Task: structure prediction
Amino acid sequence: MEFGGKSRAFRSALREGNRFDPAASNRPVLTFEGVHKAYRADCPVLRGLQLEIARGEFVFITGASGAGKSTLLRLLYAAESVDSGRILFLGREIGRLTSGSIPFLRRNIGIIFQDFKLVKNWSVLDNVALPLEVLGLPPRVIRARVGEVLERVGLAGRGSDLASVLSGGEQQRVAVARAIVGEPALLLADEPTGNLDPQLAVDILGLLEEINETGVTVLFATHDRSLLDVRPRRVVVLDEGKATDVPNGLDDVVGLVGRRVA
Result:
């Protein structure tokens, strides 16, 4: 796979053994059942959303600004709660988790933001290591795993650099490394290329596709049609609170009529 003139295989940084509960292997990684979310009663963001995401899928979530892309992702890591309906992650209802259980949910979800959310006066290593430090892993293990993921995102040897001296594309690669260092089952990318030029955007898309090839489920929220056209993938289009499921990309125009899933 080539992006930006470079070809590099993404080698999984995962530990030996089973990554997830084998009992959940046949379940969808995500199930939305009649999900309703509104900030104003007369203008729901999501209206009765019905959707399943299979384990290992790569799905684009798209729609105009304000269509609910970020809201949908925030519901998944319990930064927001549904008004009605329910969301199941690996068979467990997110809305019924106690406050003490939410950190365990988030350990299984990696999140990449448009504005990177790095601590600029920290080193690259310190930014990427943060999720592992929260888990209380030994420093030796943390250093080894951070080194592995930095190599995989193309930043080998940059661990001592301050985040503030990196380019925008490099900062987003650090954000990707931080999101995957904990080996999540699900990776959420919220407009991760919105602040990047077109070629860097394609590079980041390619990196996330390589991560997806290791078995990680990826939800990629974007309003950038050019990224959706790079290659056909499943697209969920949000519009006026409803969702249209287009399994083979937006060029699959036959499906755009009558394929709303909510």
